[in-house]
Amino acid sequence: MASHRIASHPSLQRPPSKAAQNATTHTTLHSRREGPRRRRREEEKEKERERERMILVAIVAELLEEYTAAVARAMELLLSRAPPRIFPRRVRFLVLRSLPFASPPPSPLSPPPPFTVAAGTR
Q1: Is 83 domain-assigned?
Q2: Rounded distance, CA 120 to CA 101, Å?
């Protein structure tokens, strides 16, 4: 551990060579010339990443919606088959009503209308 500290001390490091200094200067000048192009490429890459993120968000939202609907159907099935002594009718109604994407509790069948319309053909 001590040898690492001694070797990394700034006073023991060699100054950069002339070639390394020239390479650094060349890179700096080169990057200045390509600044607008590089920025434009980076902006395009960022826009592409944002599009990919939005696609992933849409996929996850769709999966969550399907999962929620499946859970709601399963809960609806379990509650509708449970005996009334375990889940009273009112509790069952409130739970089923609060489930997202679930069909409303079945209403009692209404009687057929008292009159019927006969369609006659000639």
Answers
A1: yes
A2: 43
